[in-house]
Amino acid sequence: MGSRLKLSCRAAAVLLALVTVLSACGGNPQPSAQGAAAQGASLQNPPELVSHNGLLRARIVVERHKVDVAGRKLWALTYNDRYMPPTLRFRPGDRVELDFVNRVNPYTNLHVHGLHVSPNGHADNVLIHIHAGKTFHYTYQFPKTLKPGTYWYHSHAHPISAAQVAGGMAGIIIVDGLQQYLPPALRDLTERVIALKDFQVQGDAVKTEGLHIGAPTNRTVNGQSNPTIHIRPGEVQLWRLANISANIYYKLRLRGQRFQVIGHDGFPVDRIFTSDTLLLAAGSRFDVLVTGGRSGSTVLETLPYSTGPAGNQFPQTNLATLVSSGKPVPPVTLPATFAPPEDLSHLPIAARRNVVFSENKAGTKFYINGKQFDENRVDIRSKLNTVEEWTIVNTSDEEHSFHVHTNHFQLMSTNGVPHHAHSRQDVANVPAKGKIVIRMRFTNYTGKTVFHCHILNHEDAGMMAILEIVK
């Protein structure tokens, strides 16, 4: 069961080299619970590394440091000495070159989550290991057709991705261009990064070993505990909501207000839609517009959420306080339509596939089509420039967060109920004892990539498979 899942002894043995002060495999967790936090300091966007003249060149150093984590000094796994690392910001068609310096044992790597880019060589290749003391030179040439929106980057080192992401190795990526679809009066609106990270504590360190998904945890926004977000009455802000936690879910609500969704998983919507709540399964993102209400304050919270009888029960938690004050801003009328629609529902289907997510009774081993991950085995081979329809079936009693690399997909239905997609996405929640149907078009890139459950404890314990795209 997900709430009882621990890292395997094999993974724990690897992690002993990573963080020697942590307990051995099978030790009892000692997490800290997050109580009712007092209203905190003003929300701070992470620092940014920004492209210029079509190029972003940067250095990212992976290191274990004692840093500020929600007002506490804790040992954490950091990018550039920060628990909430720099945001990588660039435009469609840009080139990104990263000198990636690893100073943690035994190894790591880097995944640019959701981005449509080559999975080969020195690009988004998650099958490599960058060992301690080594520097790897990542080079990404993004197409001009890359979709503007919010993405993220994190470790994808198997089988220790959960440990490294939970330890702090996760940051935001922004691809500029969403504002082109907004009215001129909103082209220079205030942007807020709302990066949702959680941490458990063991001693004076962020816990990485023996992670229990359902254990009490500390939820943060940009590494801050219950920060204050300022807005003027009537002001419209762009919030980039991103679940960059290792394992947990968020069901977001802004009390007394509605989210106006303009993007999902880095893909602009064809029509702005509103919602009282948004479910962010592990790995997912939403770009939303928030309008300031009358003078006063309200709360951004995550509501209680259950992932099923074999899953986890996530409690209600206040995440941030929104304070509306100052001179009111005149209202702006939003367009009925947004980005151009991209619908796969009427295209010919080259292949139909069944993908089955399952687990053993103890919740310690996880499978795709009855097999655990093997990087030397190709599980699905698909042809470039074709559309496929996949039915993802979940035979377990807990939800799973389906994610595929390299190409976005269109969600067609959940448990047989048709879904009218306003955009494509790269993460979809699969109900317990349920199924989803997706359609995916393979464009631009060939090579080996992966699909998996983005609950990283599940991925590390086998729920991942190889997809090879061929000409």
Main sheet: strand order: 15-12-17-22-19-20
User: What's the total count of β strands?
Assistant: 37
Give the number of helices.
3
Q: What is the rounded distance between the termini?
A: 40 Å
The CATH topology of the largest domain is Immunoglobulin-like
- Taking all Cα atoms into account, the compactness measure Rg is 21 Å
CATH architecture of the largest domain: Sandwich
Low-confidence stretches: 1-37
CATH superfamily of the largest domain: Cupredoxins -  blue copper proteins
Main beta sheet strand tally, sense and closure: 6 strands, mixed
Strand content: 35-45%
Helicity level: under 10%
**Helix/strand/pairing category:** mainly beta
| CATH classification, class level of the largest domain | Mainly Beta
Describe this structure in words.
This protein has 471 residues and is mainly beta. The chain folds into three domains: 2-181, Cupredoxins -  blue copper proteins (Immunoglobulin-like, Sandwich); 184-324, Immunoglobulin-like, CATH 2.60.40.420; 351-470, Immunoglobulin-like (Sandwich), CATH 2.60.40. 4% of the residues lie in helices and 44% in strands. It is built from three helices and 37 strands. The chain has helices at residues 9-18, 161-166, 456-460, and strands spanning 48-50, 55-69, 72-79, 87-90, 95-102, 107-108, 111-113, 130-131, 135-141, 149-154, 170-175, 191-199, 201-202, 205-206, 218-221, 228-231, 236-243, 250-254, 259-264, 267-275, 277-280, 285-291, 296-302, 305-306, 313-314, 317-324, 351-359, 366-368, 380-383, 387-394, 400-404, 409-414, 417-418, 427-430, 435-441, 447-453, 464-470. The chain has a six-stranded mixed sheet with strand order 15-12-17-22-19-20, with no helix packed on it. The two termini are 40 Å apart. The relative contact order is 0.16. The model is unreliable at 1-37 (pLDDT under 50).
